[in-house]
Amino acid sequence: MHCNSCVVLTESELGDLPQVKQVKACLPDLSVEVTGEFGEKTNEQIAAELSTTLQPHGYTLSLEKETKIINWSDFYKAIPIAAGFIVVFIALQKMGIVNLVTASEVSYGTAFVIGLIASVSTCMAIVGGLVLSMSANFAKEGDKTKPQILFHVGRLASFFILGGVVGALGSTFQLGIAGTFILNLLVASVLLILGINLLDIFPWVKKLQPAMPTFIGKRVHSLKNINHTLTPMLVGVATFFLPCGFTQSMQIYTLTTGNFWTGAFIMFTFALGTLPVLALLSFSSLGIHKKAQSGIFFKTAGLVVIFFGIFNLINSLVGFGLIPPLFNF
After folding, report:
1. CA 205: distance to chain centroid?
2. Is residue 67 part of a domain?
3. Domain that includes residue 189, residue range
4. How many CA within 13 A on the CB side of residue 241?
5. Helix, strand and coil percent figures for the chain, each rounded to 5
6. Is pLDDT of 216 > 80?
7. Within this chain, do residues 20 and 115 fall inside the same structural domain, yes or no?
């Protein structure tokens, strides 16, 4: 498990099984405690049986804690790829083609790229799990396309409207320079934590990730079991409240804008960035975490997110006048 989304997904999926009475997942220990009626089955048989429920989401259960093996060789490919992306990223901004990095704010380009990364990170596992589970429920009745469209429409609409509401709320707080500075530092900190977590070399970082209360994630996840025509749209709307660190970092930044339309378009652009991969997941069961190159991919994504975090940190310090501009763009 990598984040609280993994906790919610694991507990929800196992908790839906008829023979299971109680499930308690623990992120720091990477463990899950299951209580239920399993007859005369051995612990090995129970673990194997429960694993079949989690395997479509990229998880397996074992009785003994697995030894963490860090594949440092992935960095030989991840570092050049990330460096190349960052160079192109900065070059496009320098040329004025897209204003991806600014000295004082997260632009729409930045929000879109962060959305792309979030859509294939483990923090979005719960959204992918919802998409797959919902698809299976409606596929039983022969309807495979309409629920997917309604889900994505609901997700985009909710991120636009609720993002605008969050932005408008920021204006009522009158944060001022100091308040905006603190929230920008918080955004930078969240991005740094998420990026380091994606590198998958410091297990203790998982404990630092911000999380929305678990009960909210469980309530949202349970919506997939309600078989109604508008359920997919309702689930899409509810994903705004799921415990994804990337989403929360954008929500925190949106609060600093103090403007409905800016907040709406920031969150909408972020959701738009998640759309390509989630759409592929809807129709083809994409699972990047199952691929042989997943280690290289996540480390590359982690380095890019750390880049965003460092730039947000520097920009916040420059904007508050604590340090002079370090980069001429």
Report:
1. 16
2. no
3. 72-319
4. 14
5. 70, 5, 25
6. no
7. no
233-280 pLDDT tens trace = 877 887 787 766 778 778 888 888 888 998 999 999 999 988 887 777
Residues 76-90 as b/e (b if ≥16 CB within 10 A, e otherwise) read eebeebbeebeeebb
Q: Which of 32, 57, 82 is the last residue of a domain?
A: 57
Angstrom distances, CA of residue 42 to CA of 16, 45, 46, 51, 241: 21, 5, 6, 14, 39
What's the number of domains the chain is made of?
2
The strand pair at 20-26 and 31-36 is best described as antiparallel
Grade residue 159 by pLDDT with cuts at 50, 70 and 90.
very high
Distance CA 255, CA 165 (A): 9
Query: Quick one: pLDDT at residue 160?
Result: 95
Rg of the chain taking only CA atoms, in angstroms: 20
Residue in this structure with the two tokens 């759409």, named with its chain if needed: 279
309 within 8 A of 300, measured Cβ to Cβ: no
Residue 326 domain-assigned (yes or no)? no
H/E element holding 35? strand 31-36
Please report, as a single letter, which amino acid is at residue 206: K
pLDDT digits (tens, 9 = 90+) for 129-157: 566 556 655 554 455 677 778 888 888 99
Q: What is the mean pLDDT of residues 295-305?
A: 79
Do both 49 and 82 map to the same domain? no
DSSP character for 22?
E
pLDDT above 50 (res 97): no
Closest CA to 182 of 34, 327, 316, 25: 316
pLDDT interval class at 285 (50, 70, 90): very low
Q: What is the pTM of this model?
A: 0.56
Q: Is 32 helix (H, G, I), strand (E, B) or coil?
A: strand
Contact 13, 57 (CB under 8 A): yes
- The helix/strand/coil state of 289 is helix
